[in-house]
Write a structure and sequence with these properties.
Elements (H helix, E strand, L loop, with lengths): L32 E8 L2 E7 L6 E4 L13 H4 E3 L4 E6 L2 E6 L7 E6 L13 E3 L5 E4 L5 E4 L2 H6 L8 E6 L5 E3 L2 E3 L1 E2 L6 E4 L11 E4 L5 H22 L8 E6 L8 E7 L2 E7 L8 H16 L8 E2 L6 H18 L5 H16 L14 H18 L6 H11 L4 E2 L1 H11 L3 H12 L4 H9 L2
Bound molecules: zinc ion.
């Protein structure tokens, strides 16, 4: 699987950044499947044109439904081409033919399905007014020589595809642009609906009309202001105009749930629960945090990313620290000290068990956020006498970057140049190496 969304439930713990460029699929010279997702009257259909003969075509993304752990496609799709069936073999949904090869052209009818999958993107996001977004990545298939070959397979293969979407001339929003046909949608969502946008909007914000009024009001102002603020601090990011889709899943659930996922260029939020009907400081903070952290990744994550996931402290810690600064600006009562104290506690606990690089192999993603935000704070403090802060440091990383990737060593060198003392750089190196009582090193790093 190329990259997976990490779902946020109530509290943010992890998210996906450093996604591969979408263009990797679209190599002109090699044969590629051609897929058209289209709306005909009230019906959604998809027409697959395969680039090769094969007895089985398997779906690269074949995650099961979160509830029930069954395949989602049979619930949503109906094959219209005679002699072709959609079945499950091993870990994959596949098209198979009654005999011989799957025909080169297969058409299905589908009912967009807005349900959670296990560690993959919801096939569709459906808003209260019936407008929706469809995820293109679920239309990638690869050929297999037999059913047995698929049965034995554990990892999907990649096979090039051009996936387009059109809704009979209705307006779409794709990569922040209004179009009537979206091409090469790859691993992204396309929103089917009309969005009023002015050329200088830094982000396209799509708000479910069913959202409680206070949430829409807050998001309508907050979302563009976060992107504008980051742009003023760190310069332009390299993505197209970002999109935010906030959907409302209703108030049947007694508590509150703020979930979401991130694809290149798009932040999706899914809000739900009776407790969200009224504004509370907690709910507002969680929402702001979600937007600010994910918005920060358009700079630290997508414009420049880490060199390896072992160095996720660069992007996750940085995004967390930037989000904390935004939270403070948005609400002077926000407790930034408590946030940093949590980071300190979690970083100390993580480093007692081993190195920071290895944290993900210990299943401790939180370590990257916690320790990384402490390192960002050290940089921020070093800039303060000159009236500079961590965002200036990130701007410098972006401006001096050649390949879109920052290694830990490059980050440390830049931090030294930004004014972090040699002694404190050594502290950070010690902390990254881990396996120690980190508390004294952190105090020395962040003390006056
Ligand atoms: Zn993140």
């Amino acid at each position: 699987m190329k990259f997976l969304p990490v779902l946020f439930l109530s509290l943010l713990t992890a998210c996906s950044v450093n996604s591969p460029p979408r263009e990797t699929r679209a190599v002109a010279a090699t044969p590629a499947n051609d897929v058209l997702i289209f709306r005909e009257g009230d019906e959604w259909k998809a027409r697959f044109r395969f680039a090769a003969d094969a007895p089985v075509w398997a779906f690269e993304r074949s995650a099961l439904l979160q509830v029930g752990e069954t395949p989602w496609r049979p619930e949503s799709w109906e094959v219209l081409t005679p002699g072709v069936s959609l079945v499950r073999i091993g870990d994959f949904d596949v098209f198979v033919a009654a005999k011989g090869h799957v025909p080169r052209e297969v058409t299905i009818r589908f009912q967009p399905l807005a349900k959670d999958l296990i560690a993959d993107y919801d096939p569709a996001i459906i808003l209260s007014d019936g407008t929706l977004a469809i995820y293109g990545g679920h239309y990638n298939l690869f050929p297999a020589e037999s059913r047995e070959a698929v049965e034995a397979l554990r990892e999907p293969r990649e096979y090039p595809a051009h996936i387009s979407l059109t809704a009979g001339g209705a307006p779409l929003l794709f990569e922040g642009r209004r179009v009537t046909r979206a091409d090469d949608i790859g691993d992204n969502y396309v929103y089917i609906g009309d969005v009023a946008l002015s050329p200088d909007d830094p982000v396209a914000t799509i708000l479910d009309p069913g959202l409680p009024g206070w949430i829409s009001a807050r998001l309508r102002d907050f979302t563009p202001s976060v992107f504008r603020g980051f742009e003023a601090e760190m310069g332009p990011h390299k993505s197209n105009r970002p999109m935010v889709i906030a959907s409302w899943a209703g108030a049947d659930f007694a508590g509150s749930s703020t979930g979401g996922s991130v694809t290149p260029g798009l932040i999706t939020m899914r809000l739900e629960g009776k407790q969200l009907m009224k504004e509370t400081p907690d709910a507002l903070n969680r929402m702001r945090w979600f937007i600010a952290h994910e918005a920060a990744h358009f700079w630290l994550g997508q414009t420049i990313g880490y060199a390896t996931p072992d160095e996720a402290w660069i992007t996750e810690g940085g995004a967390d620290f930037l989000a904390m600064q935004v939270a403070l600006r948005a609400d002077p009562a926000y407790d930034g000290k408590a946030f940093m104290a949590d980071a300190r506690g979690d970083c100390v606990a993580a480093l007692a068990k081993g190195s920071l690089a290895d944290a993900r192999r210990r299943n401790d993603q939180r370590a990257y956020y916690a320790c990384g935000s402490l390192f960002a704070q050290a940089v921020d403090k070093a800039g303060q006498p000159r009236g500079k802060g961590f965002p200036d440091f990130v701007r410098g990383l972006i401006e001096s970057d050649a390949d879109g990737k920052v290694t830990g060593a490059e980050w440390l060198k830049a931090a030294r140049a930004f004014g972090v003392s040699a002694d404190r750089i050594t502290r950070i190196e010690t902390l990254i190496a881990g396996n120690l009582d980190a508390a004294p090193a952190i105090d020395a790093l962040l003390g006056d």
